[in-house]
Amino acid sequence: MSFPASGERFRARYRITGSEAEARRKAEDICLEQTVELPLALVPEGPIREHVIGRIEALTPIGHELYEAEISFAIETAGGELPQLLNVLFGNISIKPGIRLEQLELSATLLQRFRGPRFGQSGLRGLLGVYDRPLLMTALKPMGSSPEQLAELAYRCARSGVDIVKDDHGLANQPFATFAARVARCAEAVAKANAETGAKSFYAPSITAPATEVFQRAYLAKEAGAGGLLVCPALIGFDTMRALAEDDTLALPIISHPSFTGAFVTSPTNGISHYVLYGQLQRLAGADASIYPNVGGRFGFSVEECRSIVAGCVELLGSLAPAFPTPGGGMRMHNLAQMWELYGDAVIYLIGGGLREGGTLEEGVAEVRRQFATMVSHNAAV
Amino acid sequence: MSFPASGERFRARYRITGSEAEARRKAEDICLEQTVELPLALVPEGPIREHVIGRIEALTPIGHELYEAEISFAIETAGGELPQLLNVLFGNISIKPGIRLEQLELSATLLQRFRGPRFGQSGLRGLLGVYDRPLLMTALKPMGSSPEQLAELAYRCARSGVDIVKDDHGLANQPFATFAARVARCAEAVAKANAETGAKSFYAPSITAPATEVFQRAYLAKEAGAGGLLVCPALIGFDTMRALAEDDTLALPIISHPSFTGAFVTSPTNGISHYVLYGQLQRLAGADASIYPNVGGRFGFSVEECRSIVAGCVELLGSLAPAFPTPGGGMRMHNLAQMWELYGDAVIYLIGGGLREGGTLEEGVAEVRRQFATMVSHNAAV
């Protein structure tokens, strides 16, 4: 058999700290560490050296003691599988200081292995039947509430005009409100509200679950009438999210939550960029909406970081659909206009406590919907 | 139904940066963010406030602008499931700067939900029939080799006295050596070596795989005669590793690999401590051996950090068996005595390139085994 290498390569950009010599050393190290995991001298001459080892395509200074390395890998190294793709992109080198994964440029053949978001932005709008205003999402909480309490809240949210009513990501299968009991009641409550309003709001339960029960819960949710799934990929696995998204029996939109991802983005010199982590990777793993901590909220992301997430969710990535960026945290009545200036119609507005600021939940939702209408008509006028 | 709260709580220690007032604010924030995810004012009076919200048990200065907070949570918040336990311990607050998860103190009832390492240190020794010297592990590489080449290497390793022959963690299901072809040949090769030597060395293939194929590959490995499984929990999910470990049909030792974990430990003020990440968490997730980047190797862990990993692998954690700390990287002939001083008999020595330093693989393994014998007899004499 001839050596199985197509010659096709995918690329990743890394931000590397150090002098030019150090940056080059680190880039060369990425090429070896992420593939053959041997010093070059121990790599046999021939096709492995020629094809398998990563290749530095460019090394560019981008700041003081800061370089960007573009490195290409043979598509065969990833074997067409997401966990192994992540392994090649950022497996062992995640442990080495001063290397940050900035951007992916995957090749056509590799991208074809991924279905991406089943619905994406336009598909989600289609499911909800809302085309002319921003989408509104909120969360059922607090943990400790009974299924009846959560269902009552779900009803009120959907009844008053929230498009997507999701579980708080901390709701799993606790004795306060077991998954089965909660999902049945909340889905029923949202259906009741829809019947009254004529809207197509949906409920997305959280399926943080043991590995052997994730699909079971997802099917249970589907049967109970849930219209989407809330998934924490860092807790149950990015590839588990992908498998849920690609499951044709489920065929439910996937809303991704950033729980447990923070360590990847807390350092500017290590980890993974916001663009990749909350954007590109989410789409590869099938998320239709990617929740992320909003600027001005309690998590400290900058405007620039939030912009890069939006870009990662929507910029060209083969034929993969754009995901809906979904900023949450820090969304308040008084800054909604400001958020609109930043995001416009391009995101789902995830508003929690903000809905309760000025009075009842119903008043809050009405006020947000009124502001949305004003913004949209103002835009139309301009 | 009365409110389902047993009163039993588990604890976690967090390292928090800031002034005392800031540290207290952050600690209070952990209590809310990780449970009800609401400002205190919005949490209803009654059992949720009383039981569900985290509780600051202690806040202690441990350095300049550095505090340790001990926070307790009702065991019900975790619902007896590992993904949700991680969610409570470090879900959203992973995204907030200046908070690091340092140590877990799980309660009896919660710990009973976890089987932990099936074999642990003594079980692994039992499987290998080696009680009187340190264990030796090595990896099959490089990626790009054919199944025949890898099997030949596996044979030579086992034949010359390596106890555990594992796949390089970068071997998945690539066209160079598909999983099925590689595993069959390598398992056979190690069996052949065992038949000749009378030893009980085993082969542990890497099962980095899509979510829906992980168990399939694990069963295939078992049928082919593999003696263990190499798992990257950060790539396929910590709870997937736990499920593999607890599967009674498989009943194979689990060797955990740190690929993709680096972002958690690159900052002293964020992420998760080495003690938890490569120690306690590995045992909760069923790892019998926990591979980590060794001091002096190419990853830059300190002696102190390596010591803390060993402690996390072996210190009391309910009735969970100790896992075998398995330092890899930077293990060389010339520093083996130094490694012995640091680790003694308490770890598995994972040696890759070091085995080739002075000549053939066979000579390298013989030299390591000779050094082990000297160290052990020296110890016995002292």
| Low-pLDDT stretches of chain A | none
Tell me the total number of β-strands of chain A.
13
Give the averaged pLDDT of chain A, no decimals: 96
Biggest interface, residues from each chain: A-B, 85 and 85 residues
Main sheet of chain A? Answer: 5 strands, mixed
Task: Describe the fold and architecture.
Two copies of one chain form a homodimer. Chain A is α/β, with parallel strands linked by helices and 382 residues long. Chain A contains 14 helices and 13 strands. Chain A has helices at residues 20-33, 47-52, 82-90, 108-111, 120-128, 147-160, 179-197, 214-224, 233-236, 238-246, 274-284, 303-314, 336-343, 361-381, and strands at 9-17, 55-63, 66-74, 99-105, 135-140, 164-167, 202-204, 229-231, 254-256, 271-272, 289-293, 324-328, 348-350. A five-stranded mixed β-sheet of chain A has the order 2-3-1-4-10. In chain A, helix 6 (147-160) packs parallel to helix 7 and helix 6 (147-160) packs parallel to helix 14. The longest helix of chain A has 21 residues, at 361-381. Chain A is globular and about 70 Å long. The mean pLDDT of chain A is 96. Chains A and B meet through helix 2, helix 3, helix 10 and strand 10 of A and helix 2, helix 3, helix 10, helix 11 and strand 10 of B.
